[in-house]
Design goal:
The protein is mainly alpha-helical. It is 73% helix and 0% strand. The chain has helices at 5-18, 21-33, 38-48, 54-62, 78-95, 98-111, 115-145. Helix 2 runs parallel beside helix 7.
Length: 150
């Protein structure tokens, strides 16, 4: 799929509006797992880092939402269509350049209203940053050990 970013964002927004919280969480975490760039992960984590403060966590734990989510009653027949939609978005994202990935993630963060999902995204970004940094350190150590100097 070689669609423009704005088209994919519109489709993604429509999908998010009709999906339940669990599907949106899985989708967002799936997007973050497909980010190969330490820079993008670091920037996303930095943007969302305010969600990790103690004050934010305390305020969220004290709020009592009386809103009932009607999206959780979506028909099971939508499952296959949603899975195809998610797969095509994942494919588009994986094949996009880093600039498009960065823009797409920032727009997704704006679309998702549930702070618990954004908190999970931030946590995953931070753990992936640590994982990629460790991987880079191991590679540089191994290449440094076996490099030939003339």
């Amino acid at each position: 799929m070689n669609a423009p970013t704005h088209t994919v964002l519109k489709r993604t927004h429509a999908w998010i509006l009709r999906s339940d919280v669990h599907a949106v969480r899985d989708f967002m975490l799936g997007i973050i797992k497909r980010v190969p760039s330490l820079d993008i992960l670091h920037q996303t984590a930095r943007i969302l880092s305010s969600l990790l403060s103690k004050d934010y966590i305390y305020a969220r734990s004290q709020s009592n939402s009386s809103c009932i989510e009607m999206k959780e009653f979506v028909s099971c027949n939508m499952g296959m269509i949603q899975q195809e939609e998610i797969s095509s978005i994942y494919e588009w994202f994986t094949n996009s350049d880093n600039m498009k990935k960065k823009h797409f993630i920032l727009q997704l963060v704006r679309m998702v209203a549930d702070p618990s999902i954004l908190y999970d995204v931030c946590q995953l970004c931070q753990s992936r940053c640590c994982e990629l940094k460790r991987h880079e350190e191991i590679i540089s150590e191994v290449t440094g050990r076996y490099s030939v100097t003339l």
